[in-house]
Amino acid sequence: MSNLMPKDIKDQVRQVLETTHTDTSGRGRSFLTAYQILERLPSAIKDQIIQERGTPGSGAGRNYAAASVVSDAVEMLKPGIEIRFLDTSSLEISLEDGTKIEPGNQNVGLYRLIS
């Protein structure tokens, strides 16, 4: 079986973004990082991507790790996506399970569906 590619998961990524909190005062949906989207994908997909591409973040030992697949899948959802970037030089990223992630890049993408 070949590795999961962004095109293979874009529908599941959209589903994650569709279920993101929407601010009732008109600010729109919350932004998520590729790490958060990966974490919220169905377990079988998340586990397969991590097994194929390595743990997300700088410790993956690869240029195209699990979060990169997710980020590229989000890009395929254009033009219905808003993308911003966050400087993480003084931030610590922790997933819901307590896993600490050191981003592979100082600037990480923030993604949300345009409501």
Question: Count of DSSP E strands?
Answer: 6
Helical run tally: 4
How does the overall form come out from the CA principal axes? Answer: globular
Number of domains: 1
Strand composition percent: 15-25%
SSE arrangement, N to C = HEEHHHEEEE
Radius of gyration: 14 Å
How is the biggest beta sheet arranged? Answer: 2 strands, antiparallel
The SS-based structural class is alpha+beta
Q: Strands of the biggest beta sheet: in what spatial order?
A: 1-2
Quote the average pLDDT. 88
- Indicate the low-confidence ranges by residue numbers: none
What does this structure look like?
By secondary structure, this protein is α+β, with helices and mostly antiparallel strands. The chain has one domain. Helices cover 36% and strands 19% of the residues. The chain has 4 helices and 6 strands. It has helices spanning 6-18, 34-40, 43-53, 66-75; strands at residues 22-23, 28-29, 81-87, 93-94, 100-101, 107-113. A two-stranded antiparallel sheet has the order 1-2. Strands 3-6 form a two-stranded antiparallel ribbon. A two-stranded antiparallel sheet has the order 4-5. A hairpin with a 4-residue loop joins strand 1 (22-23) and strand 2 (28-29). The chain is globular and about 45 Å long. The N and C termini lie far apart (36 Å). The mean pLDDT is 88.
